[in-house]
Design brief:
single chain, mainly alpha, two-stranded antiparallel sheet, 73% helix, globular
Length: 485
């Protein structure tokens, strides 16, 4: 029955979705401590709506799961009280619009997570893990408090919504670097970034529902939320990029490497979570929107404020989540057919992405090619024999090094290309000359047929040769012998 509360709140949030995504945040404030000018100010905008939906939606599922997991347990009521308190703390954190209120809820999440991690208090390891997690996150909260005070003084306001509007003033302030460092330390401790990453795997001593809720969806995302929320105010500088990309990259690689040697499922999930969090921090540093939360965080599509989260950016975020889940399913599937189908979802997602950005011809091409690829791969892999032996460990390590090296090289090349400044983008040339010289209104078609006609001819030639080769192989395959029939 307790799940009805977060479920009702989730439904209420969905009803606010049209108003919020069209740039009309919902605000409510109450005078709390008049002497300290402390208001209980709440604000529901695009970013807080996204996180509130995650917290309440996943929280509803966790509560349903908890009732079955703890069925007949004498301490079920105590656990439910802890997890609801944690849920309320996280909702308060993402909805708070006053810096001191943010800090208060920040520390409440640390305290309630301590109760959840140490739920099995008779266990020495559970008590140690709970104390370790609380000490690290609370210590990070003290650094955050110092950063919050300096930020409020520099921006001359305690309202978070006003601070993100005064980014230019903050970045030019003499205390900008101390503010950035203090805020980053607070965020890194909460989101298990290097060198504070070790508390997260140890915190898997918590009961399974608590582990799922704390680490997979909410608490460890609090630091990511804070960095995303303050991105318009503190982001876009060399210091921001250097700190977040370096720490995020180290955490991403460290989590992935440490996950490889794990045999216990909980610890494997913990280290992969650390790696994913590092990737989010890294992407926030470079300002790249490729995953759901990161898309909601950074100024995707040129938006100046996260409040201006449009229906397009919301669709892109949901699509990115779907593609990530499909990629994860592809990598971890034990069935070839399921892997192919999951990989196809990624391709179909790319087709939808093209359609979102006004390229229906590219979307149709991607859709047709992806369909044919899935069908051909499914037919081909269906007739392949099953693997009897895995490759040696040394071979797998070499493959991993090659894959990581290739990925790193491509990443560096992309970053280098983004840094190149050209007087006139080549896209302007195509837009200006497509109709005048080629008499075509569809710029993509003109590029393929006129400006890059030789490239298109080469691609057609390659596909034709490949088709002829495949046809020859099918026609020349040996006939089955009588004893094989």
């Amino acid at each position: 029955m307790l799940a009805i509360v977060p479920a009702s709140f989730f439904i209420w949030l969905l009803r606010q979705l049209p108003e919020v995504i069209h740039g009309h945040p919902i605000e409510q404030s109450f005078q709390w401590v008049a002497g300290l000018n402390l208001e209980f100010a709440l604000r529901l905008d695009g970013l807080s709506l996204l996180f509130a939906l995650l917290i309440s939606g996943i929280g509803t599922l966790i509560l349903f799961y908890t009732q079955g997991y703890f069925k007949g347990h004498p301490q079920q009521g105590r656990f439910l009280m802890y997890i609801i308190a944690f849920m309320a703390s996280m909702l308060g954190l993402v909805l708070a619009d006053h810096l001191l209120l943010v800090f208060i809820f920040w520390e409440l999440t640390s305290f309630t997570s301590y109760l959840l991690i140490g739920f099995n208090h008779e266990n020495d390891e559970a008590r140690t893990a709970a104390l370790q997690a609380m000490l690290i996150t609370v210590l990070g909260g003290l650094f955050l408090l110092a950063g919050v005070i300096l930020m409020a003084q520099a921006a001359d306001t305690w309202r978070l919504s006003e601070i993100i509007q005064r980014g230019a003033e903050l970045r030019a302030h003499e205390h900008y670097l101390p503010i950035l460092i203090l805020v980053c330390i607070g965020a890194f401790t909460k989101s298990a970034q290097f060198p504070f990453h070790f508390w997260l795997p140890n915190a898997m001593q918590a009961p399974t529902p608590a582990s799922a809720y704390l680490h997979s969806s909410t608490m460890v995302k609090a630091g990511i939320y804070l960095l995303a929320r303050l991105h318009p105010a503190l982001g876009g500088t060399e210091e921001w990029t250097a700190i977040l990309t370096s720490i995020g990259t180290v955490t991403f690689l460290l989590g992935a490497i440490m996950a490889m040697g794990q045999h216990v499922l909980k610890r494997l999930l913990a280290y992969t979570t650390v790696s994913a969090l590092g990737a989010m921090v890294m992407l926030l540093g470079v300002g790249t929107a490729t995953i759901l939360v990161t898309i909601a965080f950074v100024r995707a599509g040129g938006f100046k404020q996260i409040d201006n989260l449009t229906p397009l950016s919301l669709r892109i975020g949901l699509l990115a989540l779907l593609m990530i889940l499909a990629a994860f399913a592809t990598a971890h599937s034990t069935s070839r057919l399921r892997s192919i189908l999951s990989m196809g979802v990624v391709g179909y997602g790319m087709a939808l992405l093209f359609s979102f950005f006004g390229a229906p011809d590219l979307a149709m091409t991607q859709l047709v090619i992806e369909t044919l690829t899935v069908i051909l791969l499914a037919l081909a892999f269906y007739h392949l024999p099953n693997f009897k032996h895995s490759s040696p460990r040394r071979t797998r390590v070499i493959d991993l090094v090659i894959a990581l090296g290739g990925g790193l090289m491509i990443t560096l090349l992309v970053l280098a290309a983004l840094a190149v400044q050209t007087p006139t983008p080549v896209s302007d040339y195509y837009l200006g000359h497509s109709y005048k010289q080629a008499h075509g209104r569809n710029v993509v078609n003109v590029i393929l047929v006129d400006f890059r006609a030789l490239d298109t001819l080469g691609e057609i030639t390659v596909l034709t040769i490949a088709a002829l080769g495949a046809t020859a192989l099918l026609k020349l395959r040996p006939k089955k012998r009588e004893d094989e029939k």
